[in-house]
Amino acid sequence: MTQSNESLPLAGIRVIEFTHMVMGPTCGMILADLGAEVIKVEPPGGDKTRNLPGLGIGFFRAFNRNKKSVVLDITTDEGRATAAELAGQCDVLLENFRPGLMRKLGLDYDTLSKSCPRLVYVSHKGFLPGPYENRLALDEVVQMMGGLSYMTGPKGRPLRAGTSVNDIMGGMFGAIGVLAALRERDRTGRGQEIQSALFENCVFLASQHMQQYAMTGEAPPPMPSRVSAWSVYDVFTLADDEQLFIGAVSDKQFVTLCRVLERPDLLEVPEYASNASRVAVRPQLLEQLGGILMHHRVAELAPRLEAAGIPYAPIVRPDQLLDDVHLKESGGLVPMQAEDGSTAPAVLLPLLMGGRRPGVRSPLPKPGEHNDEILARLGKASR
Question: What are 43-58's pLDDT values in tens digits?
Fold first, then answer.
């Protein structure tokens, strides 16, 4: 599994990471996947994210590959001094602790940049500077505040998205900031402080709906209550209670769908002549299509829709993606050795660079696994 990173774009960049949970680790993992040496600093006993139960059980394995682990107690003078020395050997520092903690520890940007002017320092927070900046935030908090939960759930029932969208997106924007800051450092010779925040991420996600209101003066309804721009754009229940999303977003696609379903008679209905007229009678059309589709099976219908060029999608659970043929054959889902020696699936970054996917280069680290290697650079012995 161990592979060289010499040919990767961030080879030679060293990152020190003081993070936990999802947001900061996502940023570090992106940089690590792209070839940076990422040193994850964990507290004695290891990052508590390693041992989360329930929906958090996969956080550590999902967002900490290709990193090295060093255990330091930064609540002690010695630990803080060692952390500052390590930061002095790094190009980038990542953190996502509560507001003010890194300053209290003497590991904030203002302090470190005095001796490390080339340091790129990334803080992942709940809010950018402003009236909310000292609030504690969670993905769910900002989804409620940032319009996403309102738009996702039915009217009167705000519903958070089913994954940590803002945490992950915050880490992505942190990584984008790092890449830009390193490029700027090439010109100026100086690093800078970058901030990425959950609330602003979520507002960015909702920006299309904000623009909709600004342009029309009408508040957009939640997605389950929306007036669709397309007549056929819904989830249908097929035989054996299987579900399938089907979208026919043009008149040509509607004609094709009717032919796939062997129902040319629908093309003779005057109200179905154009997308605009079909939208006007959408409930009637969907009821009629539902009655037709309930006699079809997904395994039989899906290949015909694909061959005809009709957008469709089965409703897939995350566990089913572990056996997804496209993910496996395209190289997007690969085995990774976990910290306990077992093999775990790893979902790679969703991009190709020069025809290749940045992959897994090393096993998931055990807590403090790289103390000897990293501390030796400082002339210190691991304890």
Answer: 999 999 999 999 999 9
User: Hey, which residues are catalytic here?
Assistant: 167
- The parent domain of residue 141 ranges over 14-205+324-376
55-114: per-residue pLDDT in tens? 999 999 999 999 999 999 999 999 999 999 999 999 999 999 999 999 999 999 999 999
Judged by DSSP in three states, 102 sits in helix
Q: What is the mean pLDDT of residues 180-185?
A: 98
Angle made by CA atoms 9, 14, 17, in degrees to the nearest 5: 115
What residue has token string 């900490």? Answer: 64
The residues pairing with 16 across neighbouring beta strands, listed in sequence order, are 39, 93
- One domain, residues 260 and 146: no
Between CA 323 and CA 302 the distance in angstroms is: 18
CATH number for the domain harbouring residue 175: 3.40.50.10540
CA dihedral 173, 175, 181, 184 (to 10 degrees): -100
Residue 314 CA to residue 244 CA, distance in Å, equals: 5
